[in-house]
Amino acid sequence: MLNNTYSEEIKLVAKPGEIPFAKGLEGVPVGESTKSFVDGLGGKLVYHGHPIEELCEKSTYEEVFYLLLNDQLPKESELRDLTRLMRSYREIPGDIYDLISKQAPRYGVHPMSVLRTAVSALASYDETTEEDSPSEQRRQGIRIVSKIATITAAIARARQGKPILSPRPDLTHAGNFYYMLTGNTPDNFYARLMDVLLILHADHECNASTFSMVVVRSTLSDLYSCVVAGIGALKGPLHGGANEEVMRMLQAIGSLDNVEKFLDDAMSQRLRISGFGHRVYKTMDPRAAILREHAREVTRRAGTEHWLETAERIEKIMAEKYGQRGIWPNVDFFSGVVMASMGIEPPMFTPMFAVGRSAGWVSHIIEQGNDNRIFRPRFIYVGPEDESYQPIRDRK
Ligand code: CMC
Of 249, 243, 285, 241, which Cα lies nearest the Cα of 265? Predict the structure, then answer.
């Protein structure tokens, strides 16, 4: 155990590899939280004690957001109040629609970059951004969760040259999001499916994007800055960006006959199979199992059963060959099949993830207010000491 006292400073200077440390902070607790728990060997996920399976079956995104914010399920009047507030916050400033309309269709611009910029811009339209009392932060958090869905749907529409749709106050958060994305009022099936997608992504303990936000918040920076950091972290293909990569892989594989060779080639080159593996789960991610079941009906409706067949073939071969090494499907594996079958284009998969995850992000940040300390870990210095300064003309 390192002894970090004022009298005895740890001198972290070493040769590369000399001082052991937990790379990627594997297994290192960085705080306490009441929000969610991942049982990596048991393949279980709970939000404040409630199993994800039960929430997906019985709850709504609004209710889960309330649960994450308040550590208890709402009474009817409490849910009504939150729902009313969320609806009232759905609209976004005209300038942000303009920004999205200009940036989203630009060639090569990833929608996560537009989302990050738009959420950052939102901060300047919220007069309370610099106020960080718990009640203001709560209101800001509810605004962000509401508006991030409007922003994401607007990006999806603008990318495709379709008119951006204003939010509809008569629909639920999930139903309205589906409407703003597709232009169709969802029937019960699609409204429910969207709720399930958002609930499944709502929180996941100390994942990379939540941790990024927690680090930013530890400096007492504002909530918008935290969410922007979270979006930046989620974008990467090792985190939320994996869902888009899975779809690319399914397209590259093409037919069922190619699956085994594709996987063998990739694994022998030590490439990562997107949508597989996890730092905490060493068995099937329960979210993947839920999504696989929902994929059956949505692929049947959309006529995209071939994607599910290919995905299940990948799952089977990976389980047979690599399951014992703890490499199993994670949430991103089947979510692409589901979202593509809902008519959502692959670059929008990670922004969809962000819409769901926003509930967990803001809940963790508000929780952190109770017990904050700035994050300031150490690097082990493995560079040279006492180098001499050469005049520029003498440098080789
Ligand atoms: N494909 C092939 N091999 C894998 C994979 C994979 N997807 N994931 C892990 N491994 C192997 C890895 O090569 C290593 O083998 P070895 O011990 O022989 O070097 C072993 O499993 C342990 O992997 P690790 O690098 O220690 O795992 P990690 O905890 O550092 O990384 C991960 C976790 C999720 C980044 C990684 O599993 C991965 O790159 N997966 C693919 C990307 C992905 O699906 N990301 C989504 C994660 S879940 C949802 C989310 O956060 O958005």
Answer: 249
